[in-house]
Amino acid sequence: MPRTKEENERIRQAAKEKIHAAAMTLFIQKGYHATSIDDVAKQANISKGLLYNYYKGKEELLAVMVQLRIEEVRAVMETAASLANPMDQLCYIVNGAIDHVHRNPAVYRFYLNLQTQPENDHVLAAYSEQLNQESSRQFEVQCQMFERLGAKEPKLRSLSFSAALHGTMQMMTMYTKGFPVEQMKQQMISEYCALSHETDRGSHSRKDSPSKAP
Fold first, then answer.
1. Is the alpha carbon torsion for 56, 62, 68, 71 positive or negative?
2. Is the pTM of this model over 0.85?
3. Count of beta carbons in the 10 Å neighbourhood of residue 38
4. Fewest CB atoms within 10 Å of the CB: 74, 161, 192, 204?
5. 56: how many CB neighbours lie within 10 A of its CB?
6. What's the Cα-to-Cα distance from 109 to each of 17, 80, 100, rounded to whole Å?
7. d(Cα 136, Cα 138) in Å, to the nearest integer?
8. Cα–Cα–Cα angle for 28, 31, 33, rounded to 5 degrees
């Protein structure tokens, strides 16, 4: 009995995910430039011909992986932004980001390294720019969250938050054993979510209270 369109699509997606996983493993272990399409096919345990059915070459494969990464980051920020309370928005970002790195430290490190590629690497620099542009867009969304919290300088507060969060994430990739994941999440939330929320709440209480005559 012939397969349905849905079954064919599931098989297609499963094959792509297998290829992506194989490529990521090799890009982490050997680096992008030292990895060949033959390497990826062998790692994925598929024929090179089948791989070429999905991708024209190694760069197209990287391009798709970078786009998926961008969509993943965008989805996290969109979900956070959809929450009603700015404190909950920031807590969602903290928990999501730290949990993701805890599960996949090498993947986070790969994309971080990709974002810092030298400009004279004409292949990787373009994808580095794509990732950095998306980070800038999401940073502006984050600034709006701190503005809603009533931070006096939302951009500066957002920069401090990002620096602390990314510093934590980088340390997690270096100290994979015994890293106090939950404690660091609570520290971040205490420093940036609860404290900012108190500021925001205080500003609302001032607005709601009767003004005093001069």
1. negative
2. no
3. 10
4. 204
5. 9
6. 20, 23, 12
7. 5
8. 150
Rounded to whole angstroms, what are the CA distances from 36 to 16, 60, 109, 159? 17, 13, 21, 39
**Angle, to 10 degrees, between the axis of helix 58-82 and the axis of helix 37-44?**
60
Name the residue with tokens 């609570």.
186
Find how far residue 109's CA is from the centre of its chain.
11
Is residue 149 within 8 A of residue 197, CB to CB? The reply is yes
Residue recorded with tokens 């990464």: 69
Query: Which residues are within 8 A (CB) of 175 and not within 5 positions of it... i.e. 6 or more apart?
Result: none
Rg of the chain over Cα atoms, rounded to whole angstroms, equals: 22
DSSP 123: T
pLDDT for the residue 209? 38
Q: Find the length of the chain.
A: 214
SS3 178: coil
